[in-house]
Design goal:
Number of helices: 3
Number of domains: 1
Order of helices and strands: EHEHEEEHEEEE
Largest sheet: 6 strands, mixed
CATH topology: Rossmann fold
Strand order of the largest sheet: 4-3-2-5-6-7
Shape: globular
Bound molecules: guanosine-5'-monophosphate, magnesium ion
Helix content: 10-25%
Strand content: 25-35%
CATH class: Alpha Beta
CATH architecture: 3-Layer(aba) Sandwich
Radius of gyration: 16 Å
Oligomer: single chain
Length: about 180
């Protein structure tokens, strides 16, 4: 394993497995929208890698915009206060919006974002997450398009971070809760 990986981790999905899944999701999204134009709203920073790959697997007309949401602070792997920063120029009214996030955990983030977007009069709002942790759900929300379901585990890689690190791993790996990385 390359040195950029945390010392104690298990590979859940390799870059190749992720690529296959993302390509399938692209087909599913194309079929759903059937040639209609979609406005993809990427939830930064976690969805950055995923959305870059997913949008190139969507053979259909689309716009890309982004919002910034952060719910994890410091070294914690438990959610803190949720902040959502919306681009003022978001052109949502009358558009088919697809919110793309890395992971659906408690669901608070995507629930909140869906509410904020719904107030801007879109033609429709759908939610897409690469990973789903259904056992952790608190808010009333499900992904319309979802890649992988996992148990209650903290994962990093492919855009997902631990304290700002490991977003550049090509694979998705689970951290050992008893041996969390010590970062400087
Ligand atoms: P939720 O609001 O659904 O609880 O949390 C969603 C956000 O928390 C995700 O967009 C992601 O940024 C972060 N998050 C939730 N679970 C994990 C995880 O296992 N690993 C990482 N790195 N971030 C997570
Ligand atoms: Mg996120």
């Amino acid at each position: 394993m390359k040195t950029i990986y945390p010392e104690h981790c298990d590979t859940l999905f390799t870059g190749q497995q992720i690529a296959t899944k993302v390509s399938e999701m692209g087909r599913e999204i194309e079929a759903h929208y059937a040639g209609r134009e979609v406005t993809v709203v990427a939830v930064l920073h976690g969805a950055l890698v995923f959305v870059a790959d997913l949008m190139r697997q969507m053979d259909m007309p689309m716009h890309l915009t982004a919002i910034v949401a952060s719910s994890y602070h410091g070294a914690a792997t438990t959610p803190g206060q949720l902040n959502v920063r919306l681009d003022n120029k978001l052109d949502i009214a009358g558009r088919h919006v697809l919110v793309v996030d890395d992971i659906l955990d408690t669901g608070r983030t995507l629930h909140r974002i869906r509410d904020v977007i719904s107030e801007l009069d879109p033609a429709s709002v759908k939610v897409c997450a690469l990973v789903d942790k259904p056992s952790r759900r608190v808010a009333d929300i499900e992904a319309d398009f979802c890649g992988f379901e996992i148990p209650d585990l903290f994962i990093v890689g492919y855009g997902l971070d631990y304290n700002g690190r490991f977003r550049n791993l090509p694979d998705i790996v689970g951290l050992d809760p008893d041996n969390l990385p010590v970062l400087d």
